[in-house]
Amino acid sequence: MNRKLFSKIFVLWRKIHSYHLSIFDKKGAALVTSILFATVIAVGALVATQFTVQDIKLGERYTQTREAFYIAEAGIQKAMNYLNYDENGDSPGDAGEGFTAVLTNFESDHSAVFNDFEFGGGNYTVTVKDNDDNDDDKTTDVDNTIILNSTGIKDGRSITIEAVIQNGIYRNKHAITAGGDFTIEGDPTVQGSLGSIHSNADVVGVSTNVEQGIFAAGECDQGCQSGAISEEIPLANPGDFSDFASYILTDDGNITDPEGSSINIQENELENWSHVSTGSFTGWELEGCSGHGMFYSETSVRLTGDVGKCVTSEDDLQESVDLLEQYGTAVEAAKHCDLSPSTIRGRATAGQLRGLRPGDERGGQMGPGGPGCDPGLACDPASGTCCGQCDPGPACVADDPNAIPCCGGPGGQMAGGQMDSGPCPPPLDLTLVAEGDIIISANADILNFKNPDHPEEVQNLLFVAGGDVDFGGSLTDAIDGIVIAGEQVSMTANANLSGYVIASDVFEESSTVTESKILENFTVTYNDLKNPFLNDQTKILSWKQ
Q: Which of 152, 276, 411, 490 has a CA positioned 20 to 30 A from the CA of residue 56?
């Protein structure tokens, strides 16, 4: 711009010079021209200087602004790293606790690195807030979306970037999803609004009881849609969930808490857990009733014999009933004793079914023929089958083969409001996470463990294995939860699962299960479920300055 200005001044001087030479003598014209030229040069120099100063200031402001922007961007990237990875570089990071926990703890937990943090000759400050998710609560996330604000400052210049962040919680589309081949034997039932089967390879066999269809990216039999689009299947890393475990089953035969401190086996009712090496199996084995909670194994786990038949003493039954009466709920009662909510709830239920006294959190007496019984929970009048709880009505039929056992004694059913004598052992609340295989060969009475302090998606876990899941044996009651294997899943049990199954087929290290399959006595019902963090990273949906 300055070069052009001087060029114009020079051209003007040439014109003035030529004009005066034409009307004056050369000496006079030269004098006038020189004066005029000097004036023009002085004015031009002043103007050029002003332009130059402005250019320098604009350049400095631009540079400072861009540097402030890059500093703010660095703050966003740093926050994303903390959300996705822990201090050891493993996934997940803070986002694994759920975004509600992030809203509550993120800024305070990391104030040293996000509050006026020096970077690149300036500093950044990162804050987090909930998006407008229509719940009128800025402390609770309900749509897996939050907002990060990062302000970068450089030499007094300030830029703020707003980034909309979404938690990468996996949303499963099918009741059963297999990364490799999948075999259907007999006519199993897969039902629900998402009651479908999908394989990224071939499907062998069909079933008329798959409500939402069967899909294969490869080939399959008639009644199945071949050539389907392959699904992105996340790899479940068992280590992602170790911090949520109640107990750690180590590969050297010890039981610890998540921090590595030794656990008293007797005090925690873990006597029936044993570390064994028999035949082709090496790992932890459970037979009988032993300990409610989420168990994380550094090797394989096997359930054998009768699992979950937890007969409890009269004193323990009475104590749990008293705790519920005093504190109202099992969760509140657990805060005042060394028992888990599930243990209190299970023991109290057993006590009430034995007619000790009224009242758990559902309210009402559950002794034989008690007036507080809820027939809606207990019995289906249409089928006339017993559903496992006390019902004073006559609908339950003694020795009905379709009835769900609820008590001890012959048949374990109810008839005309009368209950068989004997205890009703509560089921074992149990979630298994193993770096190796999970093998269920037991006759099990279990439910998946739910810790109310954990994110709901973690509470939904049932079995997570780095290797195979061999789902054999039989289950006394319907069970809910998510079953995930890094390799294959075999579903041959007499079981009713409410949730979904993923066989990633990423590895082929274990020979426990050689192919993923389901048999006709296995039922899977899947309508929707909050899913755990499965190696999907938190993502930036959008951003603006």
A: 152
- The SS3 assignment for 418 reads strand
Residue type, 116: D
45 or 67, higher pLDDT: 67
Amino acid symbol at 400: D
Residue 159 sits at the vertex; the CA angle it makes with 154 and 161, to the nearest 5 degrees, is: 135
Q: How far from the centroid of its chain's Cα atoms is residue 150's Cα?
A: 26
Task: Categorize the per-residue pLDDT at 58 as very low, low, confident or very high, splitting at 50, 70 and 90.
Answer: low
Domain ranges of the chain: 2-67, 72-170+537-544, 172-235+495-529, 314-419
Question: What's the pLDDT tens digit per position in 279-305?
Answer: 889 999 998 777 789 999 999 999 987
Q: Is the pLDDT of residue 255 over 90?
A: yes
> What dotted CATH number matches 72-170+537-544?
3.30.1300
The two structure tokens encoding residue 190: 């897969």
The pLDDT value recorded for residue 408 is 34
- What distances in angstroms separate CA 500 from CA 177, 213, 240, 383, one per listed residue? 8, 15, 19, 27
C-alpha 257/C-alpha 235 separation (Å) is 25
CA gap 172, 232 in Å, rounded: 10
Tell me the C-alpha to C-alpha distance, in Å, between residue 117 and each of 75, 120, 122: 9, 10, 8
Say how many Å lie between the first and final Cα of the chain, rounded: 31
350 with 321: CB under 8 angstroms? no
Residue 180 corresponds to which amino acid? Answer: G
Q: For residue 502, which of 92, 171, 91, 166 has the smallest C-alpha distance? A: 171
The H or E element spanning position 63 is helix 26-84
Choice between 175 and 335, residue whose per-residue pLDDT is larger: 175
Three-state DSSP at 167 gives coil
Cβ atoms of residues 236 and 170 within 8 Å: no
Taking CA atoms, 220 is separated from 24, 177, 206, 465, 542, in Å, by 105, 15, 9, 27, 41
Q: Are 257 and 268 in contact (CB under 8 A)?
A: no
Say what the pLDDT of residue 14 is.
Answer: 63
**Model pTM score:** 0.58
Backbone φ and ψ of 543, nearest 5°: -150, 160
Query: Can you tell me the distance from the alpha carbon of 149 to that of 497, in angstroms, rounded to the nearest whole number?
Result: 43
In the chain, the largest separation of any two C-alpha atoms, in whole Å, equals: 138
Q: Which of 133-142, 269-278, 309-318, 491-500 has the lowest mean pLDDT?
A: 309-318
Rounded distance, CA 48 to CA 151, Å?
37
Q: How far is Cα 100 from Cα 297, in angstroms, rounded to an integer?
A: 28
Q: Report how far apart, in Å, the C-alpha atoms of 352 and of each of 113, 136, 314, 334 are.
A: 54, 40, 11, 18
Q: Stretch 491-501: mean pLDDT, rounded? A: 92
Q: Which of 77-91, 213-227, 530-544 has the lowest mean pLDDT?
A: 530-544
